[in-house]
Amino acid sequence: MNEELLALTPLDGRYARETAPLREFFSEFAYIRGRARLEIAYLIALSKDAGLIRPFSQDELDFLNKLSADFSLEDAEQIKD
C-alpha cells in the first residue's frame, strides 16, 4: 500500500491515530479519487445531457459507474504514476 497517498501531513507518523479518520476525505488518495469521480460524471453528462459525444450504452454506463464507485488505492497509484 502506498502510504504517501494516504498521508495528510508529515505529522501523520506521530499523530496517525488522531488523523486517521480524516484520510478518507483529505488525503492525496481522496483528492485523486474525487477528481476521477468528477471526470467520470462529466464524461457521462457530456454524453447524456449535453449530447456532445455519442450516447453510452447501458453496459458502458454500468462500467463507468462501477469504476467510480469502486475506485481503489491501486487506481490512484496508477494515476499518480
Characteristics:
mainly alpha, 81 residues
Low-confidence stretches: none
First and last CA, distance: 14 Å
Strand content: under 5%
Order of helices and strands: HHHHH
Mean of residue pLDDT values: 89
Name the helicity range: 55-70%
Number of helices: 5
Dominant shape: elongated
Tell me the radius of gyration. 16 Å
Helix- and strand-based class? mainly alpha
Main pleated-sheet profile: none
Number of strands: 0
What report would you give on this structure?
The chain contains five helices and no strands. Helices cover 60% and strands 0% of the residues. The chain is an all-alpha fold.
Summarize the helices and strands and which ones pair or pack:
Elements: H1 16-19, H2 23-26, H3 28-48, H4 58-69, H5 73-80
Helix pairs in contact: 3-4
Question: Can you describe this structure in just a few lines?
Answer:
The chain is 60% helix and 0% strand.
